[in-house]
């Protein structure tokens, strides 16, 4: 499995955040188990990929307010409430990676979010996400990560 595949799994779980109330470690574990139960055995992340998925999903959940604050700072004439849920989940994941995964280059976090937006988002999602995340990326210095 590639990091791209692991990232896709993390996105699917992060996408569920707005549809459940009271997210905590127990809800996260149940949502993750339910998601994995729906996958074929050979499609489930293992080893380092499984650790990445758990780290990314847990990190995005734990830092949701911080991530949403970053997103809101870079939205122009939009509010976070107006974002479609795919775009929001992709931006939460990418910004989590930019801030907390120093082994992921900033440009890779942006590009991967754009690629997932092409697959899961609306027609406008890739350009919108690229614009917002490009600005976020430019504002983050490598020394600010981690």
Describe what this molecule looks like in 3D:
With 146 residues, the protein is mostly helical. 68% of the residues lie in helices and 0% in strands. It has helices at 3-15, 25-37, 47-62, 64-74, 85-100, 106-120, 125-139. α1 packs parallel to α3 (47-62), α5 (85-100) packs antiparallel against α6 and α6 runs antiparallel to α7. The protein starts with a helix and ends in a 7-residue tail after the last helix. 33% of the residues are buried. The mean pLDDT is 90.
Secondary structure layout plus pairing:
Elements: H1 3-15, H2 25-37, H3 47-62, H4 64-74, H5 85-100, H6 106-120, H7 125-139
Helix pairs in contact: 1-3, 1-5, 3-5, 4-5, 5-6, 5-7, 6-7
Features:
7 helices; mainly alpha; 68% helix; 146 residues
């Amino acid at each position: 499995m590639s990091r791209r595949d692991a990232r896709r799994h993390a996105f699917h779980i992060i996408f569920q955040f707005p549809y459940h109330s009271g997210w905590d470690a127990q809800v996260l574990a149940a949502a993750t188990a339910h998601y994995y139960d729906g996958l074929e055995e050979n499609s489930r992340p293992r080893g380092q990929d499984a650790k990445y998925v758990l780290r990314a999903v847990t990190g995005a959940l734990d830092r949701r307010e911080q991530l949403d604050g970053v997103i809101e700072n870079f939205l122009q004439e939009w509010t976070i409430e107006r974002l479609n849920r795919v775009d929001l989940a992709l931006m939460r994941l990418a910004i989590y990676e930019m801030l907390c995964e120093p082994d992921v280059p900033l440009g890779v976090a942006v590009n991967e979010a754009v690629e997932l937006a092409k697959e899961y988002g609306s027609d406008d999602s890739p350009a919108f996400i690229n614009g917002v995340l490009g600005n976020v990326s430019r504002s983050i210095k490598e020394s600010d990560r981690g």
